[in-house]
Amino acid sequence: MISLFNSSENKRTQHEAYYYEKLSDQNVQCLLCPHNCMIKPGKAGICHNKVNTGGKLFCIDYGNPCALNVDPIEKKPLYHFKPQSKVYSIATTGCNFHCLNCQNYSISQGNHAQAGKEILMPEEVVAHCLKENCMTIAYTYSEPITFYEYMFDIAQLANEKGISNVLISNGYINEKPLLDLSKYLSAANINLKSFDETLHQKLTGGKLFPVLNTLKTLKDKGVWLEITNLIVPTWSDDMDMIKRMCDWLIENGFKNTPLHFSRFSPTYKLSTLPYTPLSTLESARNIALNAGIRFVYIGNVAHHEAENSFCPSCHKTLVERNGYHIISNHIKEGKCAFCDARIEGVW
Fold it and tell me: Mapped to the 3 state alphabet, what secondary structure does 153-214 carry?
């Protein structure tokens, strides 16, 4: 059931949440993410997007995007999924993490006065996507898990039209809603913030284990997966920890899952830190390659060879990139054009 309401600043919709439990005294418990927020009437959960109204839980930004853009797929980053294609990117405000280093804090950590001013229902999103000649929708920028109901309904409709759905997320979601969403996902990039439980909680406000479970679930369900690890100086730049992370990935079957080490830019509550040194990113990449991960990239660094894809068999350059632009592509029908080795991805 959808209801519309207006404020002096923007239009708003709300949609009853798909995963919650009614408790006594009109309290409710959200069951969407591992925070499992217990929410009193008139109050919101950690993500600010789930609100208890009269003993029912509502997603208050349903149909109210704050960002709509056509992007290159490489920006997500997804390097092994439909290269050079364009994607229709969508977001609402809110996040279930409170990362100290948030790059999009103005929409993810801000209040809902910063939400979009127009209503865009799921069928309209799909129509806009087709109008822009995009055959992929990316749920991105903030945290899509917090606008799950909106994303899920768009994804269903998009799937019926042959449009792919990609999730760009922190991966902090309970298994049942993830399994339901996975039916409509073609690809995902999950941000693995840290591989230390204590550090992960300090940096993000969330636990590490559910994110690791998300990685395994997406892989098991056949969703094409890539992983991003933002290396924050003095926080997540410990090479021993990075080695443990890479070893875990190998042990759990992620040898062919592209891993993106991304450069940190000073921002939000960590604005006094330096940019990640290039040498740190290169050391992390070497650790990952030596651990056995076949495709390892460096992001947010201009004109570096680690933007490119290399054949793990003959080691020749398969895809040459300059930022989000592809200079050359030598992957033919999912194989290396030089040695015929299989290159994992959706080409």
Answer: HHHHHHHHCCCEEEEEECCCCCHHHHHHHHCCCCEEEEECCCCCHHHHHHHHCCCCHHHHHH
